[in-house]
Amino acid sequence: MGLASFKMAKTVLKSLFKKPATAMYPAVPREWTERTRGHVSIIEENCILCGICARKCPTNAISVDRKGKIWTINRMSCIQCESCVEACPKKCLAMAPSYTPPNVEKVTDVFEIPLPDKEKTEA
Ligand code: SF4
Ligand code: SF4
Which parts of the sequence belong to the 4Fe-4S ferredoxin-type domain (predicted)? Predict the structure, then answer.
């Protein structure tokens, strides 16, 4: 047995008793690290529909319909840059750790914003 074969046999034997380097996904769900930029989440109650997030978004993933009280995000256009999160004056946006699941269609999430009175919009 040559030196190369000996080294290979040693590696194979070592690998047999080692923990696998890969995770058994999807049987074992992935654990997200604390700072993972997965998807943008919103606390609807705190949003004042000011539109700053939409203006800051480099990919136009967010749209704000002030009249209809609707906040919309096109998940497939979002590049997880976090600009909207940093710009929101009400701190109602955050980067949640899980990713939007793959889909054959563009996923758009629509949120109804409970903006009850005029005073809240001027806060
Ligand atoms: S910047 Fe914040 S408060 Fe303004 S519309 Fe976006 S999410 Fe709502
Ligand atoms: S994270 Fe970036 S790309 Fe995604 S919605 Fe916010 S500003 Fe737009």
Answer: 38-67, 69-98
* Span from the CA of 87 to the centroid of ligand 1 (angstroms): 8
Q: What is the pLDDT of residues 14-42, one digit of tens each?
A: 888 888 888 888 898 888 888 889 999 99
Cβ(59) – ligand 2 distance below 6 Å: yes
Residue from 40, 47, 72, 78 whose mutation best tests the ligand 1 pocket (most atoms within 8 A of CB): 47
Match 């769900």 to its residue by tokens. Answer: 29
Indicate if the alpha-carbon torsion angle 22, 23, 26, 32 is positive or negative: negative
